[in-house]
Every structure is written in C-alpha cells, then in structure tokens.
C-alpha cells in the first residue's frame, strides 16, 4: 500500500505545488489533490509540480468537463509529468452540479457510464464514435503516450459495478477497513486499485480531534452518497471515520487498511500543526 498526502486546495496554486514537493522531501511516494468548487484546477497543479512522485486526482467532477476535453487535458498532463498520473473522476454531488452549475443530476450512474464510454477509449488512444443520451462524439486524440490509470469515485453497488467494468479501480472516502474488506474489494474484484482518502491525526486528544471533525464535516451527512456509505459502514457520522490516537494506534489502523486491500491511501492530517507533523512522520515511516 502506497501512502501520500491528499493536498487540499490552498491559498494559492503555488502553495499546493509546494505541498506536493514537500511530500517528496518527506519520503512519500504519492500525492493527491481534488477539484473543490471555485478552487484551483487539480490537473494544472499536478502538471506544475516538479517531483518524481506518482500523483493523482481524487477527484475531478465529470459534468463540468466534456469527456473529450478531460481526456485531452489528462493525456497532456500525463505527457508533461512522464507517465505518473492517476485520473480519479466522479459525478460529484447535486449541491454542486445542479445548485451551483445548473446542470442536471437526476441520473448520475447513467451519466457516469456514458462518460466513461467516451473517456476510457480516448485515454487509451482509441477512436470513439458514440451517440448517447448526453453526448455525440466522433473523434480520436492525436496525443501519443501511455494512458493514465483511470479511477472512479464509487461506494454504492451500481457505481462499484461501473468501476469494475470500465476503470482500473475505485476511490472511496468516509470508510473504515472493515467496509473495504467486506464490501468494496469483493464487489470490485481482484487485482484492482483501491484508493481511500482518510482523515488521520496522531494526537494525545483523539476525542477532541473527532469533535472538531464532527463539526467541520457536518455537511457530509446531508450528501446522499456519503450518508449511504456511512450507514453501510455502521458509522453515525464523519467523525467515526477519523483515525486518531497515538503513534501505535494510528500505525495499527493504517495497517488494517493495507490488509483489507487498499492499494493507495491518501491522508489529510488533522489537528494542530504539531499534531499534523507527528501524523506525517508516522505515515512517512
């Protein structure tokens, strides 16, 4: 299992690039970032970083980008960074896609399947001739090079099935190792990548960290996809998914993710600056 930071959108794009380069200096093999509403373009940030790390998006929302545009951007970044990109995508949430962007969000699974019918072949350098519910495409990219790995944000049974059929693996968050082992990995199938994003804190006050997380991420419970995965894992809220405790406790919990079948762990360190430094030190080791 490879461990690396999940770089949250920062004050400037340069700050994010600096954070990725700091991850390399700390000894991590990977770094991830995501597309937050109104924030920096994650693929542009990854292209600007000058490290040998394997980097990935966790995740890029599909609807704001036509699949041909996303395939072009991803293949461009893949070429610029020397074949180290994992492209994580997902349909996002209704509060962003519909409420902020005014786009339909009534059938996200159908949208995702059709999107992947276009995106996947283009990433592999294949021609696409497609006429569907949302897209009509007849094109091929002239960009040469190795295709990036393609991962799908998937925690429900339908989306996991799509990930198993059409991608290299899945991305999940707000999950614990038991759910990975008993639910995600069996449905996805063997030999696939499983990337999990986790909130982690090496701390002497785990209850305090979880109390902070419960307040900071309270909105998670109002998002149907996240509420469903919390319920499926027997978690009352996002704080229950936080890994917090001393060095030994955190190391043991991280090992459980590895044993459950997680191939990539992207972490967000929680707590004070000192606690975040302790967290990074344990995970880098």
Classify the fold: give the CATH topology of the domain at 160-285.
TIM Barrel
Please give the order of strands in the largest beta sheet. Answer: 1-2-3-5-8-9-10-12
In DSSP terms (H or I, runs of 4 or more residues), the helix count works out at: 11
Mean pLDDT: 96
Shape: globular
Structural class: alpha/beta
Cα Rg:
18 Å
CATH structural class of the domain at 160-285: Alpha Beta
Helix content: 40-55%
Compact overview of the structure:
The longest helix is centred in the middle third of the chain and has 16 residues, at 108-123. The chain has 285 residues and is an alpha/beta fold. Helix 7 links the parallel strand 9 and strand 10 (193-202).
Question: What attributes characterize this protein structure?
Answer:
285 residues; alpha/beta; TIM Barrel; eight-stranded parallel beta barrel; two-stranded antiparallel ribbon; 11 helices; 43% helix; Luciferase-like_sf; TIGR03564 family F420-dependent LLM class oxidoreductase; oxidoreductase; oxidoreductase activity, acting on paired donors, with incorporation or reduction of molecular oxygen
Question: Could you explain the architecture of this structure?
Answer:
With 285 residues, the protein is an alpha/beta fold. It has helices spanning 13-26, 42-48, 67-80, 94-97, 108-123, 157-166, 177-188, 206-216, 224-232, 247-260, 273-284, and strands at 2-7, 30-33, 54-57, 60-61, 85-90, 128-131, 136-139, 149-153, 169-173, 193-202, 243-245, 264-269. The strands form two sheets. Strands 1-2-3-5-8-9-10-12 form an eight-stranded parallel barrel, surrounded by seven helices. Strands 6-7 form a two-stranded antiparallel sheet. The longest helix has 16 residues, at 108-123. The protein is globular. The two termini are 13 Å apart. The relative contact order is 0.13. The model has no long low-confidence stretch (mean pLDDT 96).
């Amino acid at each position: 299992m490879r461990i690396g930071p999940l770089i949250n959108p920062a004050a400037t794009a340069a700050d994010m690039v600096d954070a990725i380069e700091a991850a390399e200096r700390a000894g991590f093999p990977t770094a991830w970032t995501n597309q937050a509403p109104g924030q920096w373009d994650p693929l542009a940030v990854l292209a600007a970083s000058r490290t040998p790390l394997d980097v990935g998006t966790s995740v890029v929302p599909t609807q704001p980008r036509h699949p041909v545009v996303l395939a072009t951007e991803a293949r461009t970044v893949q070429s610029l960074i020397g074949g180290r990109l994992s492209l994580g995508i997902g349909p996002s949430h209704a509060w962003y896609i519909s409420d902020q962007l005014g786009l339909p969000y009534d059938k996200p699974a159908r949208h995702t399947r059709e999107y992947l019918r276009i995106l996947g072949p283009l990433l592999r350098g294949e021609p696409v001739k497609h006429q569907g519910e949302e897209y009509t495409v007849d094109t091929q990219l002239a960009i040469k090079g190795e295709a990036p790995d393609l991962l799908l944000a998937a925690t429900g049974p339908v989306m996991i099935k799509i990930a198993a059929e059409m991608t290299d693996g899945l991305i999940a968050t707000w999950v614990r190792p038991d759910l990975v082992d008993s639910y995600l990995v069996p449905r996805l199938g063997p030999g696939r990548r499983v990337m999990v994003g986790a909130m982690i804190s090496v701390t002497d006050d785990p209850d305090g960290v979880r109390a902070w997380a419960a307040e900071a991420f309270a909105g998670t419970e109002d998002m149907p996809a996240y509420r469903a995965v919390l319920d499926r894992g027997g978690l009352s809220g996002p704080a229950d998914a936080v890994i917090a405790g001393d060095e030994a406790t955190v190391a043991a919990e991280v090992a459980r993710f590895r044993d459950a079948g997680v191939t990539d762990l992207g972490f967000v360190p929680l707590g004070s600056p000192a606690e975040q430094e302790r967290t990074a030190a344990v995970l880098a080791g």
